[in-house]
């Protein structure tokens, strides 16, 4: 198993992470069933482990917010096992109905109950250490895949142990029923259903994928952005700019005036970067870049489309609202300025690509270069040289020229800003929001997922303990 830190010696997280795997392996190898009297401890330990796996999976795949996934489909299992693993973990029972602190005060005798007790303690420590880890210490690339394989293997083991919990629940005494506040049949069905919801299948496919040699980073396998994201902390600033780029790439029809608003908003952000930075070179470059974008206008452009995709504008508005409230004395003011500066080449290029796409599809119209020969005032922009002698060349809109002029200024600004101020931005989000006592960073509008009813059966193979002890 891999550690989220770069230290050569085993740290607390590594030791606790190893302990989680070893305890699950010990429970798989133990032949004694779960005793009904121990169910409060067992379900609390099981839930703590599931919450740990969900947290690690979210951070590795850069997923934000709590999303209740729908049933897994066979197509999802085959197309994206890592995403399917996250969906299965999200649906697994993780609310035991009893506080973990209440059951950890016991001192059970050696046996399966003791293993569940030790698993709960290890999961709690590992979860705490993971949440408090420095952003730059998060595993990346092959290390992230190693940890993801551990998540898959431990998840497989928990799915196997669900059947033991389900069987013990049918013999639950009245005192345990009162403590858990659940009927025996309900608890038994809950874990019997969890054993067949695809966690074992998704875990096995993810482990096989992780064992296939060099792979891209786990992060690109996250859910695509389809909604604007809230901006509540400094680490959200570069993520918001990344979201603007992605939402522009997913936009359908977007009006010229909206692209102008986005360009002018980036000019305002650059002015804020100049206000927040203490580096005079960054401030000067930011103001030069802002002066170019501020002159963007939608002259020489028109559209007959009745709608415009406003998601990128909503995302930019949320970012502007946050940055405008940051004073120059803020401890992260310089990092916010650097993040804005470093994002400018990507956003300007995305705006230019969007304009070219809208012109190419005919969503944007340009003035007719040969207006006297026809009654049409606005026409689609022609691509390439005209084949008609004496035909004026195609009109190049002023907005597109402005974006082309802004490109070198954007790259100069990014280079002046220096190194990335947030080495692993998305991985730091959970920690930043937790320290501020904020709820999970939902999108501005909650995402909607299509309902799928096809539920695959779990494979019959039982994970070996050696799979968990790597």
Describe the structure.
The protein contains 18 helices and 2 strands. The protein has helices at residues 12-29, 39-61, 74-79, 81-91, 100-104, 112-131, 141-169, 174-180, 184-194, 199-210, 236-249, 256-276, 280-294, 311-323, 333-361, 398-417, 425-435, 465-468; strands at 366-367, 378-379. It has a two-stranded antiparallel ribbon with strand order 1-2. With 470 residues, the chain is mainly α. It starts with 11 loop residues before the first helix and ends with a helix. The chain folds into 2 domains: 12-223 and 452-468, no CATH class; 236-435, no CATH class. The longest helix is centred in the N-terminal third of the chain and has 29 residues, at 141-169.
Strands of the largest sheet, in order across it? 1-2
DSSP summary: helix tally: 18
What characteristic shape results from the CA principal axes?
A: elongated
Intertermini distance: 6 Å
Estimate nothing, just give the exact number of structural domains: 2
Strand content: under 5%
Helix content range: 55-70%
Q: Label the structural class.
A: mainly alpha
Oligomer: single chain
Rg calc: 27 Å
User: Roughly what is the average pLDDT, rounded to an integer?
Assistant: 77
Extract low-pLDDT stretches: 5-10, 384-392, 424-470
Q: Helices and strands, in N-to-C order?
A: HHHHHHHHHHHHHHHEEHHH
Q: What is shown here, in short?
A:
By secondary structure, this protein is mostly helical. The chain has helices at residues 12-29, 39-61, 74-79, 81-91, 100-104, 112-131, 141-169, 174-180, 184-194, 199-210, 236-249, 256-276, 280-294, 311-323, 333-361, 398-417, 425-435, 465-468; strands at residues 366-367, 378-379. A two-stranded antiparallel ribbon has the order 1-2.
């Amino acid at each position: 198993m891999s550690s989220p830190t770069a230290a050569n010696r085993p740290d607390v997280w590594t030791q606790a992470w190893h302990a989680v795997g070893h305890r699950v392996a010990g429970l798989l190898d133990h032949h004694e069933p779960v005793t009904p009297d121990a169910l409060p401890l067992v379900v609390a330990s099981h839930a703590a482990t599931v919450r740990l796996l969900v947290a690690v999976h979210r951070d590795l795949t850069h997923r934000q917010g709590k999303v209740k996934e729908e049933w897994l489909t066979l197509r999802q299992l085959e197309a994206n096992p890592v995403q399917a693993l996250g969906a299965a973990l999200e649906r697994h029972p993780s609310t035991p109905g009893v506080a973990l602190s209440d059951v950890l005060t016991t001192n059970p005798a050696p046996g399966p109950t003791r293993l569940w007790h030790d698993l709960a303690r290890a999961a709690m420590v590992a979860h705490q250490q993971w949440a408090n880890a420095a952003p730059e210490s998060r595993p990346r690339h092959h290390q992230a895949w190693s940890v993801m394989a551990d998540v898959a293997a431990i998840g497989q083991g928990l799915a196997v142990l669900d059947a033991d919990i389900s069987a013990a629940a049918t013999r639950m005494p009245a005192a345990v029923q009162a403590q858990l506040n659940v009927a025996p049949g309900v608890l038994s069905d809950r874990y019997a259903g969890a054993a067949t919801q695809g966690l074992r299948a998704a875990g096995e496919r993810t482990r096989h994928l992780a064992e296939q040699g060099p792979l891209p980073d786990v992060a690109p396998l996250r859910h695509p952005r389809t909604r604007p994201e809230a901006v509540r902390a400094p680490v959200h600033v570069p993520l918001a700019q990344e979201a603007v780029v992605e939402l522009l790439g997913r936009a359908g029809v977007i009006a010229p005036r909206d692209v102008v608003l986005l360009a002018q908003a980036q000019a305002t952000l650059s002015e804020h970067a100049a206000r927040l930075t203490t580096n005079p070179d960054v401030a000067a470059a930011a103001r030069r870049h802002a002066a170019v974008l501020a002159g963007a206008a939608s002259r020489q452009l028109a559209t007959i489309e009745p709608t415009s995709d406003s998601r990128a504008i909503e995302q930019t508005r949320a970012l502007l609202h946050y940055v405008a409230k940051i004073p120059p004395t803020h401890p992260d003011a310089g990092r916010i300025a650097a993040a804005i500066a470093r994002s400018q080449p990507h956003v300007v290029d995305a705006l230019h690509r969007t304009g070219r796409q809208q012109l190419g599809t005919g969503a944007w119209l340009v003035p007719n270069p040969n207006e006297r020969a026809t009654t049409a005032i606005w026409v689609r922009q022609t691509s390439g040289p005209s084949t008609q002698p004496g035909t004026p060349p195609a009109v190049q809109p002023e907005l597109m020229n402005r974006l082309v002029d802004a490109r070198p200024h954007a790259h100069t600004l990014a280079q002046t800003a220096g190194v990335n101020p947030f080495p692993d931005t998305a991985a730091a989000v959970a920690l930043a929001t937790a320290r501020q006592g904020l709820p999970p960073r939902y999108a501005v509008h909650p995402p909607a997922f299509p309902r799928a009813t096809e539920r695959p059966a779990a494979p019959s193979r039982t994970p070996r303990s050696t799979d968990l002890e790597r």
